[in-house]
Amino acid sequence: MTELFSGGLISYSIPQIVLNIVVTFVLSFVIALVYKKTHKGLSYSQSFVFTLVLMSVIVSVVMMIIGNSLARAFGLLGAFSIIRFRTAVKDTKDTGYIFFALAIGMAVGTGSYNIAVVGTILILLVILILDKINFGSMRKHEYLLSFVVNHDEGAGNTFEGVFKKYLKNIMLLNINSKRDGKAAEMTYHASFVDEDKKEEFVRELSGMSGVEKVHLITSKEDVEY
Question: What pLDDT is stored for residue 175 in this prediction?
Answer without folding.
Answer: 81
